Fold this sequence. Notes:
Blueprint: H1 3-9, H2 12-34, H3 37-47, H4 60-71, H5 79-92, E1 97-105, E2 111-119, E3 122-125, E4 134-135
Antiparallel strand pairs: 1-2, 1-4, 2-3
Helix pairs in contact: 2-4, 2-5, 3-5, 4-5
Amino acid sequence: xxRWNRWRALSPADRRLxxxxxxVIAAARVRLWLRPFPAVRAWAERAAAPAAPGSPAPSxxxxxxxxxxxxxxxxxxxxxxxxxxxxxxxGRAGIPAGIRLGVARDGAGGLDAHAWVECADGTVVxxxxxxDYAALPL
Length: 138
């Protein structure tokens, strides 16, 4: 099925969520190019303010699908960009979530870093990764 046909098959709510994910991913990617991580993280926390009541809130799995889909369209969408976008979208839906950063030794003796988002339902975006990832303190 073509990308256009898959888009047309989505519900209006899913389309809005995927467009919001695309906007947030693009904004996060550009901010990470221009600003240090603490400033970008502060932006994500501000942008994650809950949306006006009345609109149906997406589930964490809906946010995961929307972020993965939108990230495929934005060059440079790393695990950190996806985690920032998921944090913003979950916050807007009123779902408490937090970005986690972890490190592990890679095969060459260096460090490998990963970012993911956790909420009450478990890991939402960016699989927890290898069991040897050590989560950094929040």
